[in-house]
Design a protein that fits this description.
Length: 500
């Protein structure tokens, strides 16, 4: 049984847009400097189309589940490529952990320049805002902080566009020094290689797409498409506006962070840096939300893989009552869950064990299944399954409060301690982006789409529609595109680091 979501399309668009658009927006003018206006626009549109399609494929693949509100990278992996599910959760953890650390490092760099004080003080001070936001369970609960973050983005983009008109369009004698502008030709072929990665990774938003889908009040594909298209359109407008305006203002003198090109003593730039620092603080919880889910997924996978040793995790013996979310008993060690189809064209889990108990239903239910059948064909007794209360969030997998807060208040201190000692780790972050972002945005969505889209039709003996066949082929191409981008980005990152 599932619970109805409470999130609206508007709040979901805000959260998804804020997930996509972050501090990376300020590097887009640098992309145009290396690539020229024409190639820069084309690369931005390519990233928008491929990333948007990746989000669409993830949403489409989730619809073959009996309960789409249980969708996540973990549940889809367990239904398609179960042996790879921990690998992609690790990629999610590395991606979110690395980018989150970079945000904390930047917070420590920006706030002292605004208000003085020590770098470490401001990193620790950010916890006053970050920790309460990271303690919220629902993605939709972050909509208000996302709105504030979008206002900060709006100010930054408006400032860059306004400065372009003031200093370039509406004046005959610009008071700034602008280098040459390339409209069609490429300014720097070597720089184009690195800028390609920048614009591709700028659109990463897949880490939160399932939370958004699961919490939607109306999570139909029509509504989801509206959210994805609106978020990608808003993000593209911001990227293109800032990219073109910033580049045309400074030309070949454009720096990696466009704010560094402006007069640091200007009150407008002072306010822009404050907006940037505030945006980093408010964006951190959007990265921590999927990080916590991925860590929990690994924990659940570990218990499913090694059920006989799981009781030792709780420090109890076999005679003690197991925790509420403990899904495995001693007879579950030999259980093997395999995906099958039902007459309802939905994915369920078959448990090949005569001693399967009602507790085993919880495993399948956590993975989006609605029914379990034992090997002898008898339906299991589901009377002991307690559905969530109305209004209560239905988790993708078992996620009790004690583990939710345990992960939260274990991982957050670790991130803060590391950030206090880090000054810069651009190379590591580049590697994280090349592997984690690419896997979540292109490779994995493509694999899911190729295997799941249209499978609900096959389950009831129908031919896959032409549209779904088209989506499947495009999904496969998206996976190949992701592998190419990953290899290309890794090569650029390693080659540039060695040369420097």
């Amino acid at each position: 049984m599932s619970t109805a979501g409470t999130a609206t399309a508007g709040s979901s668009i805000i959260n998804l847009t804020k997930t996509i658009v972050g501090a990376g927006m300020l590097a887009i003018p640098f992309v145009f400097k290396n690539d020229g206006v024409l190639v820069g626009v084309l690369l931005t549109l390519l990233a928008a189309i491929t990333s948007g399609f990746g989000l669409f494929v993830l949403a489409k693949a989730s619809k073959v589940m009996t309960n789409p509100r249980n969708s996540s990278f973990f549940t889809l992996c367990m239904l398609t490529y179960p042996s790879l599910s921990p690998l992609f959760d690790v990629a999610m953890i590395v991606q979110c952990f690395g980018v989150g650390l970079s945000y904390l490092v930047l917070i420590g760099d920006i706030f002292p320049s605004l208000f003085g004080g020590e770098r470490n003080f401001w990193i620790l001070a950010s916890a006053v805002v970050v920790w309460p936001l990271c303690s919220l369970k629902k993605m939709d609960s972050l909509r208000y902080s996302s709105i504030i973050g979008l206002f900060a983005l709006a100010y930054l983009s408006s400032l860059i566009i306004a400065m372009f008109f003031i200093d370039t369009v509406l004046t005959e004698a610009p008071n700034i020094e602008r280098g040459p502008v390339n409209w069609i030709s490429i300014y720097d072929f070597r720089g184009m290689l690195s800028s390609f990665s920048i614009v591709i990774f700028a659109y990463t938003g897949s880490m939160n797409i399932f939370s958004i889908i699961n919490e939607l009040e109306d999570n139909s594909m029509t509504q989801i498409n509206k959210i994805i298209n609106s978020s990608i359109a808003i993000s593209s407008f911001l990227f293109l506006s800032v990219g073109v305006a910033g580049y045309l203002t400074f030309g070949s003198n454009t720096l990696g962070n466009i704010l560094l090109n402006y007069d640091p003593d200007s009150p407008w730039i002072y306010a822009a840096n404050f907006c940037l620092a505030s945006m980093l603080v408010l964006s951190f919880p959007l990265l921590f939300h999927p990080l916590r889910i991925a860590i929990n997924n690994l924990f659940v996978f570990f218990r499913m893989k090694y059920p006989t040793i799981a009781p030792s995790i709780y420090g109890g013996d076999s005679d003690e009552e197991e925790p509420e979310d403990y899904y495995f008993n001693s007879s579950a060690a030999s259980l093997t869950a395999t995906a099958t189809r039902t007459s309802r064209a939905s994915i369920t889990m078959s448990i090949d064990d005569e001693d399967a108990s009602p507790e085993d239903q919880r495993v399948a239910d956590a993975l989006g299944a609605i029914s379990i059948h034992s090997a002898n064909g008898m339906d299991l007794d589901l009377d002991n399954i307690t559905p969530p209360e109305r209004g209560e969030e239905e988790q993708h997998v078992s996620f009790p409060d004690y583990r939710f807060y345990g992960i939260t208040f274990t991982v957050l201190p670790v991130m803060y301690v590391i950030s206090l000692r880090l000054k810069s780790f651009a190379f590591v972050l580049a590697l994280v982006g090349a592997t984690g972002s690419t896997s979540m945005s292109f490779t994995l969505p493509g694999l899911f789409g190729y295997k799941l889209i249209g499978s609900d039709s096959l389950a009831v003996g129908l031919m896959i529609s032409k549209r779904d066949r088209f989506y499947r082929r495009c999904s496969l191409l998206l996976s190949f595109f992701g592998v190419i981008v990953m290899l290309f980005s890794l090569y650029v990152t390693v080659a540039y680091d060695n040369e420097s």
